[in-house]
Write a structure and sequence with these properties.
CATH superfamily of the largest domain: P-loop containing nucleotide triphosphate hydrolases
Number of domains: 2
Structural class: alpha/beta
Largest sheet: 6 strands, mixed
Bound molecules: adenosine-5'-triphosphate
Number of strands: 13
Strand order of the largest sheet: 5-6-7-3-8-9
Strand content: 15-25%
Number of helices: 10
CATH class of the largest domain: Alpha Beta
Order of helices and strands: EEEHEEHHHEHEHEEHEHEEHEH
Shape: elongated
C-alpha cells in the first residue's frame, strides 16, 4: 500500500503539491487524475524518493521509498518513457537494469515477450516510436515482478491494440493483489481501467472514491423522453406538463427531451395524465469525462482560449480554493474575484474536495450539492498479493537533481 500523509512540495514560491493525504491499496487499479500541472508527476516522484517533500511524508508498505529494504525489487515505475539511453538496444537497456538489481537475464527476455518487443529487442531504442518507448518503459517497470507499480500516462502514444493491452495488464496486475497506481488524461480509458480514483487539482485532493461514486457525486443523471415524431405538438405538451411539475426540460439534438429534476415514474405518470404517448423513457448517467471536467473546472491552470461547454448532466461549476502559500493566480474560467466558490468558508483540510460516503444523489434528482470532504474513504481490504520478487529501477527516471 502507498500512503501519503500531508504531502507538500514547494519549488521556491510555487506550491506544486499541498497537504495531500491518500492511500493506494493493493488489489485495485487506482487512477490518478488531475489537470496539467496539478502535481501528479511531483507526487509520483515523491512516492519514488526522487523528490523530497517540503512537508508530510509518503510511504510504501510503511517505509519511505529510500528506506525500503531492496526498494528496486519491490517497486516498479514508468515515469518517463524517454528516459532511456537511445544508443542501447531494448534488450541491453533491460539487461543493464537487471544486472544492477541482480535479476537473471532470462527475466529480460520474459518481459520483452510480455510487452511485445521481442522482435525489435536488439534494435537501438532511439529509433523506437512513442508507443514502442512506452512498451519498453512498462517492461522496465515490470522487470522485477514488483508488488507496487506506478505508471505515469502509460497509454501515451499507444495504438488501440496497445491501449487494450495496457488496460488488461493493469487489471491483471491488480487482480494478482498488487498495488497499481496509474495516471492518465484519458477519461474514457480510466473509466474502463480504474476502480478507484484519486483526483487532484492545483496540488490539492479533490476526490478519493470509486469511479461509480465519483460520477454520481459530480454529475446529475437525466432522463431521455421521446414522443411520437408522427404527432406534432406532443413534445410541447409534455414539456409544459413536466415543467409545471418542477422538471427541467431541454431539447436533445435528435428531437428527444432531456429531463432533470423528475424521477422516471413521475415523468411516466405526468405523460399519462397529459395524454401524451411515449416512444422512449430511459435513464442516463453522465460519463466519467463529464464528471471529471465538472469537478476540475476551477482547478485548471492551462486551458484553450475557448472554454469547453459545461456538459449536460453535470453539476454547476465549482471553484477550487487556493491553498495557503500558493500565490494568487488568475485562471480563465475561474469565478470573478470576490465571488465565493461553493466551497468557500467550508471547514476541513481539503476545501475543494468532494464528499466520500456522502449521500449519493438519486439519478434524476437535482444536482448534488458540494460538501466538505473527509479525506479517506473506507474501502474493503484487498487480498494480499504474491511476494515481491525483483526490481524495476525508478531511479533511472529523471530525478529532482536533473530537473
Ligand atoms: N522542478 C521543478 N521546479 C519548479 N516547478 C516545478 C518543478 N516540477 C514541477 N513544477 C511545477 O509544479 C507544478 C506541478 O507539476 P507536475 O509536473 O507535478 O504536474 P502534473 O500534474 O504531472 O502535470 P501534467 O499532467 O502536465 O504532466 C507545475 O506548476 C510545475 O510547473
Amino acid at each position: 500500500m502507498i500512503e501519503a500523509v500531508g504531502l507538500t512540495k514547494r519549488y521556491g514560491a510555487k506550491t506544486a503539491v499541498h497537504n495531500l493525504s491518500f492511500q493506494v491499496r493493493p488489489g485495485t487499479v487506482t487512477g490518478f487524475l488531475g489537470p496539467n500541472g496539478s502535481g501528479k508527476s511531483t507526487t509520483m516522484r515523491m512516492i519514488l524518493g526522487l523528490d523530497t517533500p517540503t512537508a508530510g511524508h509518503v510511504t510504501i508498505g510503511g517505509h519511505p521509498f529510500r528506506k525500503l529494504p531492496n526498494a528496486p525489487r519491490q517497486v516498479g515505475a514508468l515515469l518517463d518513457a524517454k528516459a532511456v539511453h537511445g544508443g542501447r538496444s531494448a534488450r541491453q537497456h533491460l539487461l543493464s537494469l537487471a544486472q544492477l538489481s541482480g535479476i537473471p537475464a532470462r527475466r529480460v527476455d520474459e518481459v520483452l515477450g510480455l510487452v511485445g518487443l521481442q522482435d525489435v529487442a536488439r534494435k537501438r531504442s532511439k529509433g523506437f516510436s512513442l508507443g514502442m518507448g512506452q512498451r519498453l518503459g512498462i517492461a522496465s517497470a515490470m522487470l522485477g515482478d514488483p508488488q507496487v507499480l506506478l505508471f505515469d500516462e502509460p497509454v501515451n502514444g499507444l495504438d488501440p491494440e496497445g491501449i487494450l493491452w495496457v488496460r488488461n495488464l493493469m487489471k491483471q496486475l491488480a487482480s494478482e493483489g498488487r498495488t497499481v497506481f496509474v495516471s492518465s488524461h484519458l477519461m474514457s480509458e480510466m473509466a474502463l481501467t480504474a476502480e478507484h480514483l484519486i483526483v487532484i487539482g492545483r496540488g490539492q485532493l479533490l476526490a478519493d472514491m470509486n469511479v461509480k461514486d465519483f460520477i454520481a457525486a459530480n454529475s446529475a443523471g437525466f432522463a431521455r423522453v421521446r414522443t411520437p415524431d408522427t404527432e406534432p405538438g406532443l413534445a410541447e405538451k409534455l414539456t409544459a406538463a413536466l415543467s409545471a411539475a418542477g422538471g427541467q426540460v431541454a431539447p436533445e439534438p435528435d428531437g428527444a427531451l432531456r429531463v432533470t429534476g423528475l424521477a422516471l415514474p413521475r415523468i411516466s405518470d405526468l405523460a399519462h395524465e397529459a395524454d401524451v404517448r411515449l416512444w422512449e423513457l430511459s435513464p442516463h448517467q453522465a460519463s466519467l469525462e463529464e464528471a471529471y471536467m465538472q469537478l476540475t473546472q476551477g482547478a485548471v491552470d492551462y486551458r484553450s482560449a475557448v472554454p469547453p461547454q459545461v456538459p449536460h448532466g453535470a453539476v454547476p461549476p465549482q471553484a477550487i480554493a487556493q491553498p495557503p502559500g500558493m500565490p494568487p493566480q488568475g485562471y480563465a474560467g475561474d469565478p470573478p474575484a470576490g465571488v465565493p466558490g461553493p466551497y468557500a468558508g467550508q471547514p476541513g483540510p481539503f476545501p475543494g474536495a468532494q464528499p466520500q460516503g456522502a449521500p449519493v444523489p438519486g439519478p434524476y434528482g437535482p444536482p448534488p450539492q458540494p460538501q466538505p470532504h473527509p479525506q479517506a474513504q473506507p474501502r474493503p481490504q484487498a487480498p494480499a498479493g504474491p511476494p515481491p520478487a525483483a526490481p524495476a529501477d525508478p531511479t533511472q527516471q529523471h530525478s529532482e537533481d536533473a530537473r
